[in-house]
Structures are given as C-alpha cells and as structure tokens.
Write a structure and sequence with these properties.
Length: about 325
C-alpha cells in the first residue's frame, strides 16, 4: 500500500497503529530524523535511519517522493541500507548543548574575520588578537578615516561582545553537563583532551562500543585509508593463490564526521608542538625523514586509538602502562 501522511505525531502513530504484522521502517537522515526515530522506535520492530550519501540506487533514473519511497522499501527489504546511529533520548541534552556551543564558536569566528576584513580592506595591518581587545578599540576605530567604515566596525564589535558572552555561557553549560557523564573522568585524563573536547566527542559518538576495532573508528573520523585492488587471486598449479599485487592507496576516506576529524587533528597539532612524550615521538619520526604532515596524521590516528581504548576499558590514561609506552 501507499499513503501520504501529514508530518504530525498523531497522524503517524495512528497510521502505524492500523498496520498489522512485523513492521520495519526506514527514512533518510535529515532535520526531522531524530524526532521521527524517537517517535517510531517503540512502535515498530526496527527503525532504520539510512545514510542518503550511500543510497546510490536513488540517484539512478527519475526522482520524486513516490519513486524514492519505493526504492527505499526495496533496499530495506534486501538489507542494503547503511544505518545512521541515533543515541538514546537521555543523551539529547548533551547533543543540543554541544551543537549550540559549536554554532556560537563558528559565529564568533565569522564576526572576527569580518572585523579584520574591514581593516585589511583599507591597508591597516591587524595581526594577532589585539584588534579585538576592548581596551584598544577606540585606537583602532580612529584609524578608519571613513565614517561608514567606523560605524560598521563599531556594530561588529557590539556583535562580537554579544557572541562571546553567549559562547561563554554555552561553554559553562556544556562543561557542567558533560561532567555528569561517567566517561568524562577517564577521557579527560588523555593529554590535550579537555572537558570541551570530551563533551563534543561524547555528544557525537554516544558510545564507543559502536566500533569493534580502531580501524572502524578511524574511518568514522575521516582518518581511514581508502585502498583499491582487483584481480587478487589466480590459479597456480591447480590451486587458488593470492597474487602479489600491491594495494593502491587513494588517500583518506571522504565519508566521515568532519567535526571529530577537526577535533583529533587539533589534538595532534598541539601534541606535536608542546613538550611531552607525543612531541618527542613526533620529532623522532621527522628526523627519520618522514613528512611532518604524514607524521601528524599518524599521531592523530594514535590519539584516536588511545581514546577509543580508554573509553571502552573505563580506565584512566595514567593507569594504563601499555598506552603510556605507546605514547613514548
């Protein structure tokens, strides 16, 4: 059967309640996916939120809502859909606080870039952070000869003050909430993984047991290597043997979570520049002739593997001698 439903909880539940048998439901990840997942999960045997980037069948041929729904139903029946993880509703508060903090951070950075663009557009050098300081704003505004540019910069300063105030409030709420999570005690013992980064990590990942191995975690972070090979086997003397073909590397995987990739890349950057065992390991690899960018990528993968292991074991970084030796 086919039916068009209004996007209201009562309508959807009434339709599902009128069906019999074992029900499987699928829909694509989108703005309403979390609401619909929480609504339907108790009502059906399985609710699959699928990744639209992996539904290649939907890109072939004509496209409309009716055709897409029919193709999704066929993919669900064949078990070919890639599900998107949706955590429990208890984690939703931390997720929303993390999204709010990330959005305010991006908005603050955008205002700061616009403010510097006003000065740079008039050949006024403004390196560093001094241009944002309230103590020196009058001196900076006096350098703008045009009245319109001064008013624009003054409005941007007001906007920056408001964004920074909201960002501080969002950060306090995020840190306060993440401290209630039991994994925070162990994750924050990892070098360069503070409470804010731990909050973002927990909000996005939810549980480390989603990933059976560190390679699966690397792929989720965008730190996994994409390989290509064909013709792996041949008949030799009547027996099937693997050929000696070399795997072709095609860089890092593109289907990943960009926020977590930035998180571990920033951790690796700090670990490679600040004194400590990770810095010593980084310098040793560079002296061996390896590219600093490649060593930094390897360091990010090491930090991700350590984070996943500590999260799964529920142990502190300082308590695990194996991880400490790996860091050294």
């Amino acid at each position: 059967m086919e039916s068009i439903l209004e996007t209201r909880a009562e309508t959807v539940l009434q339709f599902i309640g009128g069906l019999s048998g074992t029900l499987w439901v699928t829909f694509e990840e989108g703005i309403s996916a979390a609401w619909l997942h929480d609504l339907l999960k108790p009502q059906v045997a399985r609710a699959v939120v699928c990744d639209p980037r992996k539904n290649a069948l939907l890109k072939a041929g004509n496209k409309n809502d009716q055709i897409d729904a029919r193709k999704l139903a066929e993919l669900l029946r064949a078990g070919l859909l890639s599900p998107v993880y949706h955590g429990e509703s208890q984690e939703r508060l931390l997720k929303e606080l993390a999204r709010s903090y990330r959005a305010l951070t991006q908005d603050t950075t955008r205002v700061m870039n616009r403010l510097k663009a006003v000065y740079r557009g008039r050949a006024i050098r403004c390196p560093g952070q001094r241009v944002y300081s309230p103590r020196h704003r009058d001196d900076w505004l006096q350098q703008l000869g045009e009245a319109g540019a001064r008013r624009r910069a003054a409005r941007l300063y007001e906007q920056l003050d408001g964004q920074q105030r909201l960002r501080r409030q969002a950060r306090q709420e995020l840190v306060s909430e993440v401290r209630k999570h039991p994994a925070t005690v162990h994750l924050t013992t990892i070098p360069f993984l503070g409470p804010v980064r731990a909050a973002v990590l927990i909000a996005i990942v939810g549980t480390p047991h989603r990933f059976r191995t560190k390679r699966q975690f690397w792929a989720y972070l965008g730190l996994g290597l994409q390989t290509r090979i064909s013709g792996e086997y041949q008949l030799w003397g009547g027996r099937v043997q693997r050929t000696k073909r070399v795997l072709g590397l095609r860089g890092l995987n593109r289907n990943h979570n960009p926020e977590l990739k930035r998180l571990f890349k920033s951790m690796a950057t700090e670990a490679s520049t600040r004194p400590g065992p990770w810095h010593n390991w980084f310098q040793a690899r560079v002296k061996e002739g390896l590219s600093p960018a490649l060593v930094r990528l390897t360091l990010a993968r090491k930090l991700a593997a350590v984070t996943l292991a500590i999260w799964k074991k529920g142990r502190k970084y300082a308590d695990d001698e194996a991880l400490k030796s790996q860091a050294a």
